[in-house]
Structure formats: structure tokens, C-alpha cells
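User: Small ask, check this?
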Amino acid sequence: MKKWSVLSTILASLILGFSGNLWGADATFDVTANSAYVWRGITFNDGAVLQPSLDVTKGGFGMNVWGNYDLDDYDDTLDNGQFSEIDLTLSYGFAIKSVDMSVGYIEYLFPNASPALPAGREVFVTCGVEPIKGLSLGLAVYYEIDEVEDIYASISAAYGYSISEALSVEIGVSAGYVGKDYSVVGEAGMNDICASLSASYAVNEALGVTAGIYYADTLDEDVLPEQDVTTYGGIGASYTF
């Protein structure tokens, strides 16, 4: 009951910010269709999924609701045609000189899990720098504060290039470390490596479309066993109000 109370509260806040310009906030709705759902190197679904998202920001404050809707089932662990996950995020972003920082809280809900799964709750801090134009370097640390009480951390690098005023491409890579209690098999260490290549096209000031191909694999099979999906792709569209 508690998790649905939190969900209702944050959804209501998002709707207020989304309509009527009560905050003068910016709102972006995004929906992505992916050929699989992979998170931190772990395969959650090896079939098609839809992942809608609503993001509302005002100043440095942000709220986000994200969902994973399964179009295919997966090894009898979930059914198609329903949301297997809903994530709620509250964040605050700020800058310290040339370093962009953010802190926040994420609640992971699994509304249709059978047997029922408890909500996951993380606090996080991220930092990023742009040493040269187009190149972004980042560090993110997440700590699960409820069920697991351990960390996941990642380092990342991305390079973006504008081909034209409307079209841009980006290549990125990241590597993750997981604590013992957060590991799939109970071993701490380097967990996953991910790479991406994506293209974005701005149809107009509000509407954009994206397409990407992604690679995710284990860095140490003693920490993260081999997964069903290593390569997948997706297309998406976003609209800013």
C-alpha cells in the first residue's frame, strides 16, 4: 500500500506541473520501443518492450515517471501486455564550477510481479564534466537503502557530434561496479560494460526522434553471469511542452 501511496503522490505532482503552467515547468513526454530490456547488463526481457517516460523540470528540480511495458513474455518470469516496472525519480541538479552535479532518489515498483516483489529504493549522486566540446565524462553512484543496502557505481564517456542543425549522433561507453549484496550472484566486482551508438533528429523545436543500437555484456562472469541479450536496438520519439 505504501508504494502505491508514493506513486499516487508523485503522479499527482507531475500532472500539476504538466498542466496549467502552475510552476512554469518544462515537461517532456518520451516513448521508446526497444527490442529488449537490459538494465546494468542484466536481461530483464529478451523481447520487444515499450518504455514511456514523463519528465518535469523547474530550475534544478526534476521529477520523472518511467515505465517498462512488455510486448513479449520472458521465460515464464513475466507476462506480455502489462507493465512489469515503474520507476519514480526525484532529483536536483546544480553546478560546481565546471562540474555538473545531481542528487536524487529513485523508487522501483514492480506492479505485476508474481510472486510480489518489494519496491527498490536508491539514492544517488552523479557528476559530469565536458573537458572538450562534445566529450562528456561521468561518474554515478547509487546506493540501495531498503532491501539490499549496497552500491552500484558506473563511469561513462560519450562523444556527440552535430551533423546539421537538426541531426546529431552520439557514441558512448560505460562500465559498472556492483557491491556484493547488489550482485546477481553475491560477488562484488566489475559488473558490466555497455556501449551505444545513437542518432537524434529534431523535427521542430518540440518534437524529436531517435534511433540507437546498444551493446551490453558482463565484465566478470563471477560477478554477472552471461546474459541472454548482449545487442539490441530501439527507436523513440519525444515531445517537449
In short: Helices lie at 2-18. The chain has one domain: 2-240. Residues 2-18 form the longest helix (17 residues). Residues 2-240 form a domain with the Porin fold (CATH 2.40.160.40).
